[in-house]
Amino acid sequence: MKPAISIVMPMYGVEAYIARAIESVQKQTFTDWELLIVNDGTKDRSRDIAADYERKDERIRIIDKTNGGLSSARLKGLESAQGTYISFIDSDDSLQPEYLEVLYSIIKRYDADVSMCSYNTVFGNSQTPVSLCFPQGTTILNDSEEILKDYFLPQIDSIRKGSNVLPAFMWLRLFRRDIISTDLFISERKVYKEDLVLTARLLFSIKKLVVINTPLYNYFINPGSLTMKYRENAWSMMKSLTLELFKVLDKFPEKLVHERRLGHLLFAVHFVLKNASRQNYSLYKKQFQDILKSELLMQAIHKASLFTVPRGFFVMVWSMKIRCPFLLYKYNKKRV
Questions:
Q1: Which CATH number fits domain 5-226: 3.40.50.300, 1.10.287.3510, 3.90.550.10, 3.40.50.10490?
Q2: Tens digits of per-residue pLDDT, 23-44?
Q3: Residue 227 DSSP symbol
């Protein structure tokens, strides 16, 4: 018989964490699942470790592929998934034992397209629960326009705090398999925040979303994770993200999204320059000058008021307005 849930777990360079991730799946109180571990051409012992679990548990399958990145591994797993529902899990994270049971229960009970939960961030020995922008218990969103306007648009404007935001992470959700198509995926090597782009594309297909504000997923912040590293192609990745997100914004009245565009462009400048500050000043200055050549980004800088931008963006906006990279480089260098 086909399983109720297919779990897709991309795997690359996680020999220190893969056993923890697999065992957290095996400890689920809901047992009607298959685990598809997609080996994305890993060069360490990750596959050997996973193979030990595969031999002992018939619900676990390893799928081998040449290296192509996280999104391509998820897509490969999706193509092999047999479950009615699908969940994506990162191989350096772990699940609370009730993760599948709770998400499956509410997606079935409310006949929803997607169910999701909140999560814990784990750094070293510290674990912090992250609460979503909903009351405790279960919240049902059954208006696709409301979901887009009230909970997706705030994610595009990343510089404001305290807004309603539905995290775009793929790993917080249980999806009905038939709403996910291959054309939703985009490579994290081409665009920053690929999960946000996928969510933007997917939300137009979601008629009902059910949220339980309970942390059931453990997100580990590891020293070697991608979010902690310098991205050589950050500038092109951010331009690609902007292009994709603005395609979504174009479907809304400009009056509704004008400030969102401005907020995203300021975030784009902030991200690119903070990333560049991980390198030497010469490379940072070149990146700074490249941004000065972007008419779209500089329009956003000139429109931004020093009196209203968030504190963390004040130095950036001021430095860009006066075209002075050195002070901003020193400021960012202390924060990476």
A1: 3.90.550.10
A2: 999 999 999 999 999 999 999 9
A3: G
